[in-house]
Write a structure and sequence with these properties.
Blueprint: H1 19-30, E1 34-36, H2 42-52, E2 58-62, E3 78-82, E4 91-93, H3 95-102, H4 106-116, H5 131-141, H6 144-152, H7 160-168, H8 172-180, E5 189-191, H9 206-216, H10 219-231
Parallel strand pairs: 2-3
Antiparallel strand pairs: 1-5, 3-4
Helix pairs in contact: 1-9, 4-5, 4-8, 5-6, 6-7
């Protein structure tokens, strides 16, 4: 339901595209609500829905660390269940865990990751700036713009070595931070179009689901999903 956007688009695996229509039909047959936004990636949809939520706590399940920037306490808690190392090694990232692990809050994570770099996003980071220095800079100057301004100010409390490294990346940083940033203002469309939707405990259209399973040979995956829905 979404498309890619931003200055640097991530390449979609060739084997994924043909599976998306089947996946959407399976979700419809089960009765799981869908959400999407034209011109946006899934991260932008998740970011927008998480930011909008003003009633219930939000738990995001993802293997993408960029979503750590959504973590917050108010007005409703947003927590990321990080599964980058697999479900058996899930990490619960709330505000306290994020500060303990990276030394930043949710909004500061995107700026810190921009400085440090992230190979999973193809971002090299600033040469010579590691995670600890990146977190310290964001802790002191709050944003990439603040870091750039401090590095350009001879009177600021930035070492000459760090100042040179930031100056060398002055063209890279304003572009890279936009790649890492998750949108929170996407025009998200919901299916069905309801304000709130609950997960089903059994398929909404068993006949359609059975036909999809038979046609695509996905019985094992569908059975695991149905079991998880029934046991929640």
């Amino acid at each position: 339901m979404g498309a890619q956007s931003g200055p640097v688009a991530e390449a979609e695996p060739d084997e994924l595209s043909p599976q998306i229509p089947v996946l959407l039909e399976v979700l419809r047959a089960i009765g799981i609500p869908l959400a999407g936004a034209d011109g946006c990636e899934a991260d932008d949809v998740i970011g927008t829905l998480s930011t909008r939520e003003a009633t219930d706590p939000v738990e995001v399940v993802s293997g993408d660390r960029d979503l750590f920037q959504l973590v917050r306490v108010t007005p409703t808690p947003v927590t990321v269940r990080y599964i980058g190392a697999g479900m058996s090694k899930v990490q619960i990232m709330d505000v306290a865990a994020l500060r303990d692990r990276y030394g930043v809050d949710g909004p500061g994570y995107a700026a810190m990751a921009t400085l440090r770099g992230d190979p999973s996003d193809g971002l090299p980071g600033v040469t010579g700036i590691g995670e600890k220095t990146a977190a310290d800079l964001i802790g002191r100057f709050a944003s990439i713009e603040g870091v750039l301004a401090a590095a350009a100010d001879p009177a600021s409390a930035v070492s000459s070595a760090v100042r040179r490294k930031i100056a060398a990346a002055a063209d890279y940083l304003p572009v890279a931070v936009r790649v890492v940033a998750v949108r929170t203002d996407a025009d998200v469309q919901l299916e069905p179009e309801v304000g709130r939707a609950e997960l089903p405990r059994e398929p909404a259209d068993p006949a359609a689901l059975a036909a999809l399973v038979a046609e695509h040979g996905i019985g094992g995956s569908v059975d695991r999903l149905l079991q998880a829905l029934a046991e929640r």
